[in-house]
């Protein structure tokens, strides 16, 4: 059905991998660095995280408008990589809190745009080589998941063995590789190929209801996952009584299964369509989160982690294709909306999990997450019933 995967796209995936590894090294590490490295109170993490997230959302949206308007994608990727390099160089020299809140916020906030930009660009590159967008989305999601398996582990290992600022020095070195791959892997005149059809009128002058309903679905199911992700480590250790290394093992199992699940999504789309596949995955998510809330032993934890990786791997790949299917004429806008929605859920989930756990316990957080996943299923069903124009792959 598809052509053999062209070797010409491998450098692009390597670029995505290196850029994501760089981000994965910094994103989870900054909170640890602010508290353990600089000695500030934990609440100060929220100042940094809020500023970075707000800037990232603005940059993603601005870059998406440029890409959909026909702007050259090449310099946008270079801006992100350069910003990451500058932030790491400055923090290597002056690792103080005011630098984190100024140069760090600007550099790391801008650099987060690279994933959204590359996912937008990847669709056009795939079509140029005769590969279905949904299939290449799966390759890109598997690439980012693999990078997230590696990045955090590397940063914390380096910090433990070589000191807190060594992470910034290593990230700066890796960003040079990022820049080299950007120069070699991306055509210097790469632009998105827009489609001039009747759907182009939608989203320019009117409200693209389908796109926003798809984003609402992504928001609900991503919130359910983020709540679970935030609560599980403390739930396993404090309430179930598992050893301290258990959450890390569960995360490794989850991400391992997640990568393999992602590669099955093109088949699911071709066989069952996007909506039906997503509905089945959402129902699986509800069951999985209930299983996670019932864990009482180490083997049960591993089984639950495998189930979580399976549903989330499927959802991560299907979800972005689903959102993109409602805006074929503005793929960058749809892609940015998808990543910004994930970012917002990540921001909200931490405080929400903390408040719920403070009032009840961490198991209750997981049960609430299961309820939010139920809302996601309802949104998906209602959206399907209300849409007169079906997505291209449904």
Report the principal-axis shape: globular
* Major beta sheet summary: none
**Termini distance?**
18 Å
- Contiguous low-pLDDT stretches (5 residues minimum) are 197-205
Per DSSP, the total helix count is 14
Helix content bin? over 70%
Portion in beta strands? under 5%
User: Whole-number average pLDDT?
Assistant: 86
N-to-C SSE series? HHHHHHHHHHHHHH
Radius of gyration: 20 Å
* Structure class: mainly alpha
Total E-strand runs: 0
Give your account of this protein's structure.
- The structure is a single chain.
- This protein is mostly helical and 394 residues long.
- The longest helix has 32 residues, at 209-240.
- It has 14 helices and no strands.
List keywords for this structure.
single chain, 394 residues, mainly alpha, globular, MFS transporter, transmembrane helix
What's this entry about, in short?
The chain has about 400 residues and is mostly helical. The chain is built from 14 helices and no strands. The two termini are about 20 Å apart.
Q: How is the secondary structure organized here?
A:
Elements: H1 10-37, H2 44-68, H3 74-93, H4 97-111, H5 113-128, H6 133-162, H7 166-185, H8 209-240, H9 246-262, H10 265-272, H11 274-293, H12 298-324, H13 331-359, H14 362-386
Helix pairs in contact: 1-2, 1-4, 1-5, 1-6, 1-7, 2-4, 2-5, 2-13, 3-4, 3-5, 3-7, 5-6, 5-13, 6-9, 6-12, 8-12, 8-13, 8-14, 9-12, 10-11, 11-12, 11-14, 12-13, 13-14
